[in-house]
């Protein structure tokens, strides 16, 4: 029987870091007193935390949500329930769960609202569990809620080899849509091909406008854009009449200025997709969405791609790899996993 410690370790951040690369001194591993759940909360012993691009932004104070004091980055995780607060009925100590928080997952413990946790189904491991919510949640919300995706649609995905890009690719193919995947390197496009992309475009080698005219003369029904920058206007000009342009983020670092005559002439709509806000504002619809994603996972239609693992103390290296897209060159994905490789008192791995 496991004896819980009275303290836990977590990455410490103050949200005012300069642009990466980060150092270990800027994101140190510190020890804190163990957490006690408040009413409606659950304390989870974190096994795996996923690393996402917003983690890089929040460490610099550039994300939409800004913690006011010392915090740990990390939005999504998997682990086991340690303790539960009042009014928590559906979970108990020892349950395997996946969950999300505004921040705080780069830690051995995290306290989270009961509404932001779901039991892991049988057959799912901690790595996959930690990797599903943000990338697949964002992409499912974008494609189904805003994009109203249909099997007859053509979907253009910018940055398709990235975390949310790969998730969007798999979800679009699961719906039966045609997927045009774009990326900056042929090696990245090979991963997209392996995940089912119908058309591949290297926008560093090929002119995106010309390539789209060849493969989709009428344009795309849906454009999925987590990149921003110079590609946005070209992609928007290649949307069909009544098409949907989904704004996911700005991984390029540049927020583009869009000529509003383009959506006017094309009769298309531009949708901002902020899954984190949706998750907080509409918890019932979120649960329905998560259920759908789990069904797709168990059916073998979606599978997170884990490119690298880091021990908790090396969180800064994981963020640097993501910010510089270095891991992508080695393992063909920017969807990284941060592992908490604690040693139990029995001198055995906790997982």
Structure description:
The two termini are 15 Å apart. The chain is built from 12 helices and 15 strands. It has helices at residues 53-59, 126-130, 133-146, 163-174, 186-194, 208-215, 231-236, 261-266, 275-281, 283-298, 315-324, 326-331, and strands at residues 7-11, 29-33, 41-51, 76-84, 96-100, 109-113, 117-119, 154-157, 178-183, 199-202, 220-225, 239-247, 269-272, 309-310, 336-339. Strands 3, 4, 5, 6, 7, 14 and 15 form a 7-stranded mixed beta sheet that branches. It has a 6-stranded parallel beta sheet with strand order 10-9-8-11-12-13, sandwiched between helices. Helices cover 30% and strands 23% of the residues. Helix 3 (133-146) packs across helix 4 (163-174). It has 351 residues and is of the alpha/beta class. It folds into 2 domains: 7-131 and 304-339, Quinone Oxidoreductase, Chain A, domain 1; 141-276, 3-Layer(aba) Sandwich (Rossmann fold). InterPro entries: ADH-like_C (IPR013149), ADH-like_N (IPR013154), ER (IPR020843), GroES-like_sf (IPR011032), NAD(P)-bd_dom_sf (IPR036291), Zn-ADH-like_protein (IPR051397). One of its GO terms (molecular function) is oxidoreductase activity. Pfam families: ADH_N (PF08240), ADH_zinc_N (PF00107).
């Amino acid at each position: 029987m496991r004896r819980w410690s009275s303290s836990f370790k977590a990455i410490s951040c103050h949200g005012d870091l300069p642009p990466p690369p980060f150092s270990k001194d800027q994101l140190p591993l510190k020890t804190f007193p163990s957490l006690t759940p408040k009413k409606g909360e659950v304390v989870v012993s974190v096994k795996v935390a996923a690393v996402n691009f917003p983690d890089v932004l929040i460490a610099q104070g550039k994300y939409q949500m800004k913690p006011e004091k010392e915090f740990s980055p990390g939005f999504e995780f998997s682990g086991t329930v340690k303790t539960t607060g009042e009014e928590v009925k559906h979970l108990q100590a020892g349950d395997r769960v996946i969950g999300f928080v505004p921040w705080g997952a780069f830690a051995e413990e995290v306290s989270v609202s009961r509404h932001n946790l779901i039991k892991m189904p049988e057959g799912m491991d901690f790595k996959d569990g930690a990797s599903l919510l943000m990338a697949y949640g964002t992409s499912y919300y974008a494609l189904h809620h805003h994009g109203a995706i249909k099997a007859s649609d053509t979907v253009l995905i910018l940055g398709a080899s990235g975390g949310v890009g790969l998730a969007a690719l798999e979800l679009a193919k699961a719906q039966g849509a045609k997927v045009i995947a774009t990326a900056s390197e042929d090696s990245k496009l090979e991963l997209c091909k392996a995940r089912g992309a119908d058309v591949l475009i290297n926008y560093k080698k090929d002119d995106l406008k010309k390539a789209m005219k060849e493969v989709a003369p009428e344009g795309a029904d849906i454009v999925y854009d987590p990149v921003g920058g110079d590609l946005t206007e070209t992609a928007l000009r290649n949307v069909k009449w009544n098409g949907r342009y989904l704004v996911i983020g700005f991984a390029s670092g540049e927020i583009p200025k869009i000529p509003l005559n383009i959506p006017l002439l094309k009769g298309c709509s531009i949708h901002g997709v902020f899954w984190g806000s949706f998750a907080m504002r509409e918890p019932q619809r979120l649960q329905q969405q998560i259920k759908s994603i789990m069904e797709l996972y168990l059916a073998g239609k979606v599978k997170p791609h884990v490119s690298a693992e880091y021990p908790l103390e090396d969180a800064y290296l994981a963020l640097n790899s993501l910010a510089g897209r270095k891991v992508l060159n080695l393992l063909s994905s920017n969807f990284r996993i941060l592992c908490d490789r604690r040693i139990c008192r029995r001198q055995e791995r906790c997982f």
